[in-house]
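Continuing the batch. This is chain 6 of the set; chains 1 through 5 are on the previous pages. Same settings as before, nothing changed between runs. Recording input and output for traceability.
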Amino acid sequence: MFMHNKRLMYTVRVSEPNPVLAGMMLEQFGGPQGELAAAMRYFTQGLADVDPKRKDMLMDIATEELSHLEVIGSIVCMLNAGVKAKVAEGLEEGMLLRELNQGGESQTTSLLYGGGAALVNSAGVPWTAAYIDTITEPTADLRSNIAAEARAKIVYERLINVTDDPGIKDALKFLMTREVAHQKAFEKALYAIKENFPPGKLPGEPEFSNKYYDLSQGAGNARGPWNEGEQWEFVEEYQEMQAVDGGDGMASVVLEPEEEALAMNVQKRTESSLKDPTTGADLGAKRDGSAGKTKSIH
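Output for chain 6:
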């Protein structure tokens, strides 16, 4: 059950309307790293989690993300307050058009959404459930959550850098800081699971688990803790990277006799001839005098 408290989790103070900035703020309202995506990610994970302690954490954070959505949405609406009134009530002929076009992309949100907080990102792309990458395996989902919070923090940093409004900066710093707190909570929850790597139940195949294949060779080759040390076998010889299972490296399938006969018929019907054919390109090349295949005509 959800109940709405009319007081925001963090006070929104906007010095003056700015529809261009409002368009940028939409990234954290309806974007892939935004608050709605975060809320839905943790809410769906919480519904499916069989551990009551972890479920409680996920529901707490999912609900907090909804409160963050309200904060960022309120910022968007306050920044659009001036243009919303002008679009709704109308201005002197031509004046509104000039004002909207001074706002770069702001005319899109002004005309389509009336200056409201639309569920789109800063480029106007509609929100989609495809942003939710829950796979219902806690050790995988928690790692994804940590990364999602990190990405959201970076977006907030960038938004902080594009505004000089002290009230907006203050609210954005709060939202950014809560991303850090959530990262810590998710990481603690991950390591509270005794067997958390690799994700899932099945272990990796021992002969491949510790090999590092140097498949991008040339200038800039680098070694570090990601590919050297006691736990790594560094493979750089080209021949050792082919058919690492010891087979011939070719794809094959076992067919029933009838299927195999049909497959052979297809292969025979579509096989390539080694004879050089005359093509439309060859004929066209002769017409304009460019180089091409020639044929003697008697």
